[in-house]
Amino acid sequence: MNSIELKTYRIAFQEEAYKELNQLIKSHSYSSIYILVDSNTQHFCSRFLSENIEADVKIEWIEIEPGEEHKNISTCHEIWKTLSETGADRKSLLISLGGGIVTDIGGYAASCFKRGIDFVHVPTTLLGMVDAAIGGKNGVNLDSLKNQIGVINPPQLVLVDVGYLSTLPPEEMRSGLAEMLKHGLIANAEDFFAFEDLSQFQVDKLPELIRDSIQIKTKIAEEDPYEEGLRMALNFGHTLGHAIESYHMESSSKTKLLHGEAVAIGMILALKLSVEVLKFDQETCDKASRIISTYFKPVEFSEEDISNLKTYLKHDKKNSAGNINFVLLEDIGRPKINCKVSDEQIKKAFAYYKSLSK
Question: So where does this one cross the membrane (predicted)?
């Protein structure tokens, strides 16, 4: 499978990706290599990566705790301490082996250490492959608020090997699927409706579908690297999705949701809001919402929950001048950014979401 050549980095696939990684290591003459993992990827994935790296310099492993609650500055501080204490310098390379949390933390830590060292992402989850490791965004959470601290800085290389997906539980695969569905909704109806009938889904087509999804994101990110306009379309479903994810992470009475699980809810809500605000076709909204609902279990929201979510909406990164901005759809493949939505319309969207589970 051919690599994707971007302005500042490459995305390489399968066996060819390891050749590109080793060529990068050789051509840059790195003084040392650090591989960042969490305890899950250390157990399930580290051996395979280590068997495929060719390097004449020392390789150090840095292990962090898994989970969204550890995606913070404290974890970065521990990484920076380890790098410093073991002699890392400006010519060191950091490879992040893991899901979106690991690559987000790794990219941010590398971008800050000694004002920036090279880094490579090796995503091991579907979410990481199609979203988190792509586009140059790296960052951490501020308490329960998602991705409030970070930088936009591209890696040297993203290595995509679908073999790592065999280590994932089903819920993690679904979490990544949410972002693939999003890419289809904002860019290409054919890509979205490819997931309409699971019985027709062929596993051997997964690398191709992943590559298609990556190309949608990279095309948008290349045109608007610093999220000044077009790139905001990638936040479809994320305004309420991030609020729902943060609320469930912080509330002791709620079950935590994976990123994709929260975004799936956010996309259904955004589809209904698109009907209310932009006259998006209701029948298409129903069809798309049913497809998303096929993959994700319904979550209950009380009136109190919906009211509490407004606090988290105020911290969304797309906001400006005190306004909460939504990405909505005029049609599939035609997103519109900076849409204003009323409280009443949000309530209608939640009522619509609830009706789907009846």
Answer: none
DSSP assignment letter at 203? G
**Are β-strands 92-98 and 118-123 bridged in parallel, bridged antiparallel, or unpaired?**
parallel
Buried (b) or exposed (e) across 243-278, using 16+ Cβ within 10 A? bbbbbbbbeeeeeebbbbbbbbbbbbbbbbbbbbbe
CA distances from 103 to 124, 267, 318 (A): 10, 24, 22
Mean pLDDT of 112-128: 97
Model pLDDT, residue 78: 98
Lowest mean pLDDT among 115-129, 202-216, 312-326: 312-326
Report d(CA 31, CA 27) in Å as an integer: 12
For 223, the token pair is: 């045109």
CA distance 158 to 33: 16
Nearest to 350 by CA among 294, 250, 269, 293: 269
Residue with tokens 């990638």: 234
The string of pLDDT tens digits covering residues 163-172 is: 999 989 999 9
For every residue of 14-41, DSSP letters joined together read: HHHHHHHHHHHHHHHT-SEEEEEEEHHH
Whole-angstrom distance, CA of residue 86 vs CA of residue 121: 21
By the 8 A CB rule, do 271 and 280 touch?
A: yes
Closest listed residue to residue 90, CA positions, set 115, 56, 60? 115
Question: Could you report the per-residue pLDDT of 124-143, keeping only the tens digit for each?
Answer: 999 999 999 999 999 999 99
Q: The tokens of 181 are what? A: 């569905």
Q: Domains, the chain, ranges and CATH? A: 4-167 (3.40.50.1970), 173-206+227-355 (1.20.1090.10)
